[in-house]
Predict the structure.
Amino acid sequence: MMSQTVEQIGEFELIRRIRNLIKKEGVESPGVILGIGDDTASFLPRQGYELLVTCDSMVEGRHYLPEHISPFDLGRRAMAANISDIGAMGGRPLYGLISLGLKSDTELAYVEEMYRGFIAELNPFGACIIGGNLTTSGNGLFIDITLLGEVEMGKGVQRSTAKPGDVILVTGYPGESGAGLQLLSLSSSRPELKAHPLIKAYLSPAHKAGEGAAVGHTEFATAMIDTSDGFLGDLGHICEESGVGVLLFAEKFPVSENLKRAAEILGKEPLALFMSDSDDYELIITCSRNHVAEIRSAIASSFPGPVSEVGRVTEREKGIRLVKADGSEEEIRARGWDHFSDGCIR
Amino acid sequence: MMSQTVEQIGEFELIRRIRNLIKKEGVESPGVILGIGDDTASFLPRQGYELLVTCDSMVEGRHYLPEHISPFDLGRRAMAANISDIGAMGGRPLYGLISLGLKSDTELAYVEEMYRGFIAELNPFGACIIGGNLTTSGNGLFIDITLLGEVEMGKGVQRSTAKPGDVILVTGYPGESGAGLQLLSLSSSRPELKAHPLIKAYLSPAHKAGEGAAVGHTEFATAMIDTSDGFLGDLGHICEESGVGVLLFAEKFPVSENLKRAAEILGKEPLALFMSDSDDYELIITCSRNHVAEIRSAIASSFPGPVSEVGRVTEREKGIRLVKADGSEEEIRARGWDHFSDGCIR
């Protein structure tokens, strides 16, 4: 049986269905005074905590192709991007607002599956959806999520506070998601690529928000950012906002076997894939050399993967420099990646 | 000289320009710890206050036509819609997050003018923009705003708490904005209509957020809502959420001379224009008959226009009934307006 479309069901009935789905499948978070259903949502913030707030959009045709991703995975991706930002401050997600621009022929089942994706990412944190907006857009679908979170007062880890001399750590394997996306595009003409593990890395990204909170709790991180603009793009944000440079060691980069194989298929350098645009939601952390062990230990409590020391923070004048395997040094301009990236003014 | 387009200027340079504009023309709000420029924004909520949060989208071609509205007015409208929601809870706006989907040929000057519109609405409240997201959408432009506000603990005025026997008050002249929009569409073929005062009512809506806060402060309103879905649409929301019916008196409806003239031009009944879809951002307030004077006085402190007593709240079973000028009574179904309206799940 075909699912009804948004147009057939009507927007107010759609809202009723979504509200019921959230009530049934989502969790109830403490602090909520008014959830969905009034002019605004309302909640009571906890004393001693700062509130964090971020928003992020996904636009059909720009950030995803509907034929390549299920609505459930799309919902998860969109929410994970926001959760990752809260985590990169050392915070904990609390409440989400979902704004959707739907097409009139979008099916109810598609919308419901997106919400199941949002909820699947929020439930583990005891976080919930408290509001949003639904409209038909006439054009492509868009998802805009605002996520609120909290962090103990004064314990938020910013991107603007890295210091020369600090060590640069990165979790996991940056670049895998971006390579997965390229493989996914290629798989239209080469269906055997559909089973490549990096396509899964792209479709179901695993944020490190829990690890980010643990790192924040140590109070030893001098700066932290998630790699939603790619390793070099986000390191560039740290440089710009902290007024520092960095010296990177290519040999220390965590380039996975999967990424090397993908590089071969794509005819690209593994190093380029590692550094370039890729929303992996890994964490880049800077800290004093004396505190690397504590940071590693905080991350290891929930993440079994690698935490790699890939370089160190330098004076601003040094710029962004890379020491290659052969010992030669080269200046790289993080700005070069900007035009691939989304503009985030949060 | 032509303004540069978003594509020419690049997204990161665009963000820099917007950030500067906000810094220069916006106000600095108390409580902000981190504004634009990190993974998330961050702020310290005031003790003894609930936080309110709402979001609302405007989509090109769906909610506005670019040839009919300047980017400054568009920015004002989009922000006023959100401010109105905070006000309808009795709250005060604090912080905005702006998510924009731009076309690659959108001009920088257009985006800047939209931000001037946002800021023009926020500055009077000492409220500011603390974050957001910019992306190119490939399709039509969209604006999605999330607005945070605050209200003293327990003093938020909901839409779900109207009681049978309450009086129904409405501010100003609902229906004018919707009629103005219809005149605006007609003005393409009839340019003499461009000077009609209701077109201005549509283009520069005046929310009643200050008045909403004053009403909330009296603690005498049993329910309140803004008329962004039209008088009958929003009264229907009160009925549905409060589990009540209403009895309305057509003779008491504040139908302005301007609306009557517009009805003639449009070949419609003034009453129908008054009740139907129109985002005027007036307030519908319910209260005990004993407290009408206090509510009127709270509103009069800043709004010189009419506050009309248009009916009373009844038991749910009575439905939504209208007493016409000739004394006859008719049941009207607010649901009939739903499909014209935006779906708001906040």
Observations:
- The CA atoms of residues 91 and 153 of chain A lie 10 Å apart.
- Chain A has eleven helices and 13 strands.
- The domain at 6-152 of chain A is CATH 3.30.1330.10 (60s Ribosomal Protein L30; Chain: A;).
